[in-house]
């Protein structure tokens, strides 16, 4: 007989969480018989969720929670350190999303003990929610879960599940992603026996002969195997009942069975396994089970005492903890393309798991992360157990919508005309052929008002249908279309003939009146060229220009002060002509004045910049001096605060147990 090994401090701590989880699991299994739904829960997560309640409770409520969680410490900081040691090793593991938090009524006050204990030891915070608005409250909690799991769990409760008179809601989430240490092989679907006796075809996977921890307990009528993950720390323990036994017998056995001792005494054996793939997500309602595990007053509005978090009378309305597990041939929560196609032969020594079984995801030091039961691998959720929902609800909604759209009429029984009509329907609900007929008829009416010959072509088209001959008869030849355009075009828009040599053409069509330039162009280009040159060389009178050109024209030297002084007697005559010499003199004087003004402004600007730089350098020197004086003061304050930081922040003190 193997001597039982004594538990160390770490194992004792983990055993408390496992016993608390098994208490809740046994309460669930007592309500089931031949139910085909699956279960997954997190003993460690639920233990820490109630740990938040322990940090907030006082009096009788605190005593009940401590007794249920098997906590012997008296002070809250010692209790908090016990909670921290349970998950501090995996706190920053991105492949193990885990979080617990508390949501209280928006109008409630908050006290200091819980405000400092919850963030320090459980890495949570007090969230105030308006429970009078169930949709907003549910959205706040769901957004929290979505953020903590990086979108893996976007919804853990619905607005209909949130009572308006809620005071405290505890929430938690957990899922794990790991690769197998020994990869499985994809296999064809196999038979799985459900508790109701029905055979189901389910996807299967196989593990070739490998050295694993394995135990065949004939006295307890079950077989146990421990399959490790790639990290070497986590593993999945499978408890598989004998053929003569049932899953209900195994559930009753676990009420007094020591799983930690079982894992310690499992020998290494070469074994091959065939088992189904499964994925389960659940948010189980434990409202009727807390009392069986010793927690009663915390859920009562009359006797609950949470004075360490608020002076208001608060009580726990509900606890929502959602767990997720997805087991396939690549690992847990891992999706990859199949890379192995090996042949797998099932022998008499192969462990074939084709009946309901119990699984547990645990660490080397027996931390109970996930615990559950698979009765039907084809189900993705725990529908029927409390407040649970389907793991692939969005996919199922899409499938239901597709099923409804195709279930009314079978495709094989539809006629060709019906299928064409369905495909050609537009936004207005009419078929494409009907819309084409309406468009063609309206077009024919418009054309008939212009030319009666088009009516004949449209009638011919309606008789011939949509054939090519009908289209040709409707459009006519190219020559006919051109002739119709000439007939319909007004006479005034026609082009005048180039010459009047043909008397018939000139008499029938009178050309439009030509302007002077066109007349010169007809007589010859030299005269037109001379006229344009004379217009360019002729000086223009500024006052003779239209008003709009005076407004829009840019200011010239003629309008400047220097130019007006040079005008002299010419200004009174109404003439603004300037000679070239006066313009050059004005230009030189303007350039000299601008140069002197620019030099003086540049000198003033440089003097102002130097003064600003002096002030800025003085301010910088003063700020550095003040920072140097304050540096020693802040360092001294930090030394004093560090004396107590290890006690208040376990993460700063490297005391996390394995």
UniProtKB/TrEMBL annotation:
Residues 439-467 have a biased composition (Polar residues). Residues 382-584, 598-658 are annotated as: Disordered. GO terms for cellular component: extracellular space. Residues 496-508 have a biased composition (Low complexity). Pfam families: Serpin. Keywords: Protease inhibitor, Serine protease inhibitor. Belongs to the serpin family. This is Serpin domain-containing protein. It comes from Hermetia illucens. The lineage of its organism: Eukaryota, Metazoa, Ecdysozoa, Arthropoda, Hexapoda.
